[in-house]
Amino acid sequence: MLSGNHKSSLAGGTTFLLLLVTGLLGFATSRVAMGQAVSKKNDGFVVQFDETVQLRASVGKVLISAFPGDVDIVRSNNERIRYVESITVKEDGEEDARAEAANISVIVYQTRGEIEFQSRGDIGENRRIKLWIPVDLELEISNSYGDVTVEGGNAPVEIATGTGDIIISDLEGYLDIWTGMGDVDVRNVSGPLTIESGAGDVEAVHIGAEIHILTGAGDIEISNIEGDVTATTGGGDIEGDRINGDVDSFTGGGNIEFVYVKGDLDLNTSGGTIEFEYIVGHVRATTSGGDIDVRQLRGSLTAETMAGDVYVYDMSGDVKVVSKVGDVFVRINPDRNVELEFIDIRAENGDIDLRIPSDLKADLRIDLGYYGELETDKFGGHLEWSEPRRDSAGARIRRAVGTLNKGGIRIELSTGTGDISIKDR
């Protein structure tokens, strides 16, 4: 038989344990409102949970973990999180549908720094969750499949999904996205952007910092970027417009096009054309099988194509062009802010057409195939031809050395099987 003191001690311990368990349950869920609706759909039911969670003051991050379905995030000015989860289940009766959905709906855990919405199962024909969360909370989402939409916020966002499209808009903070398969659309993000996709198209518009984009197969479109750009696709086109920063892009089998860029460009495609226009910076363009088209370049150019023509209009910097099979057309328009030092053009199997100001001062060297022709127009100077010789492949070539307007910048032109023309632009 217990004494009074022992009874009092046991009662106090029981009360403490009850308070502890109650506190832990509140710590885990913190639900303050709950609703449920059921509707018939085909051979099953749609069960919808509508709940509100009061946030602890220390919470700074929202996690959505292993959710098998679509995720929608909308920012709000409340200190609570409202979430609506819809689950489609194939059951014969309404009560069975309620029970089945309740067994797999998300569990809410709240710790000192995070609140987590965790799925309990990958069951259901279709699942979807929509959350209204405060604007200043960080966000981390992972789902095995399904689309993800995030609108608004001024805190970092990280997203990882197995398959599904991702749409992000109006975010202040950095954004990190990984998807195994799906298209990505990002607009109005102030912080740095990183996107990795196994397969899918990527579009990024109005990004206020540097961006890094990698997709295994898909097109990349970017515009209004305030920072450096890295864009890589295993097989697709790359297009960029209005970029204030350096650009490094590669595609395994597509075209590349950039317009209005203030920065240096490094462009490389294994099998496509390269076009760029209105560039203030230095450009390196390489393609294994396509044309290179350059317009309005205020900087230097290094261009190389294995099989394609090269067209350069209104160039005001140093030029180095190599074409294995194809013609080369270059028009120089010197800018007073750019010092032109050399023009080096090699078309191994094609014609060279060089247009330069008639008063340009240059030291000239020309290597011309034995049957090729040289045409000049309105230039004051003298060329001296050396005796024909054979190049490394055994072909007979002729070399001419001389000056234009008493000498100046270095101009070297070389072709094995084509003609060379030097004319006033």
Keywords:
425 residues; mainly beta; 20-stranded mixed beta sheet; 19-stranded mixed beta sheet; 2 helices; 39 strands; disordered N terminus
Distance between the termini: 114 Å
Radius of gyration: 33 Å
Work out the strand percent.
over 45%
Mean pLDDT, all residues: 87
Which term fits the overall shape?
elongated
Question: How many helical elements?
Answer: 2
Total DSSP E strands: 39
Query: Helical percent range?
Result: under 10%
Q: How does the major sheet shape up?
A: 20 strands, mixed
- Helix/strand structural class: mainly beta
Descriptive overview:
Among the domains are: 31-146, no CATH class; 341-425, no CATH class. Helices cover 8% and strands 57% of the residues. The protein has a 20-stranded mixed beta sheet that branches. It has a 19-stranded mixed beta sheet, with helices on one face. Strand 6 (107-110) and strand 7 (114-118) form a beta hairpin. The model is unreliable at 1-33 (pLDDT under 50).
Helix-strand layout with pairing:
Blueprint: H1 4-28, E1 31-41, E2 44-54, E3 61-68, E4 70-76, E5 80-89, H2 94-104, E6 107-110, E7 114-118, E8 126-134, E9 138-145, E10 148-151, E11 157-161, E12 166-171, E13 175-179, E14 184-189, E15 193-197, E16 202-207, E17 211-215, E18 220-225, E19 229-233, E20 238-243, E21 247-251, E22 256-262, E23 265-269, E24 274-280, E25 283-287, E26 292-298, E27 301-307, E28 310-315, E29 319-325, E30 328-332, E31 342-347, E32 352-356, E33 362-369, E34 374-376, E35 381-385, E36 389-390, E37 396-404, E38 409-415, E39 420-424
Parallel strand pairs: 3-7, 3-9, 4-8, 4-10, 9-11, 10-12, 11-13, 12-14, 13-15, 14-16, 15-17, 16-18, 17-19, 18-20, 19-21, 20-22, 21-23, 22-24, 23-25, 24-26, 25-27, 26-28, 27-29, 28-30, 29-31, 30-32, 31-38, 32-39, 33-38, 34-39
Antiparallel strand pairs: 1-2, 2-5, 5-8, 6-7, 33-37, 35-37, 36-37
